[in-house]
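Open question from group meeting: does this chain pack into something compact, or does most of it stay loose? Before anyone orders reagents, we agreed to write out a predicted structure and look at it together. Recording both the input and the output here so the notebook holds the full record.
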Amino acid sequence: MSYELYYWPGVQGRGEFIRLALEEGDARYVDVSLVPEAKGGGVPAILKALEARGVERVPFAVPILKAGRQLIAQTPNILLFLGNRLALAPRDEAGKLWTNQLQLTISDFYLEIFHTHHPLGDGYAYEEQKAAAKRRAKDFRSVRLPKFIDYFERVLARNRARGPWMVGAHLSYADLSMAQVVAGLRYAFPSATRKVLRKRPCLCALHDKVFDRPRVARYVASGRRLPFNNEDLFRHYAELDR
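Structure tokens returned:
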């Protein structure tokens, strides 16, 4: 099956979790944001997908994955769908639920990272909420970041398969997403992340193993993976990292 991914151009955002799964799963897909508007792609196509006229189950926001006639939204939901089809999740029910649970926790973590620079909401520019952002980032660095990182390190250490992955002996979409979060944290909070990962060898190994995988490495080297930037959800402001 060939898929269509709808996500905003110019940023990795939540769409990158889907891209990593599609790339690792060797899926055929079209990233609609990269298709010229003259050929039916770009922002107009994304807005059209959001309108979803004639569709009973209307998506709220991107990312949206089109699979045949289905429009599937919400990052964990899309990955739950792709897990079976791309061999990126266990086949047993308990394993599927555990992988989804980890992905939902990653989404919680991701949202807290976003709120460090936009604690009052994205309707305000960063400069309008800098004081609140500094306060929120201080709590994130000292409390929330170590709590989440400790949790995922513990998950890796307790995996009975004793491999580099969080779920059994094989890579899952949750591993891809966790590696993406580590990469984003290293961009957004280089100093704080370096300190918190110093004694978390399992997470460091997970990140390296994911980005060393041939298909992921080929995707990164292709130039199709956008760089982190301060229009994205992972943002680096020096004053929030000290």
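Observations to bring back to the group:
The two ends are 47 Å apart (CA to CA).
Residues 93-213 form a domain with the Glutathione S-transferase Yfyf (Class Pi); Chain A, domain 2 fold (CATH 1.20.1050.10).
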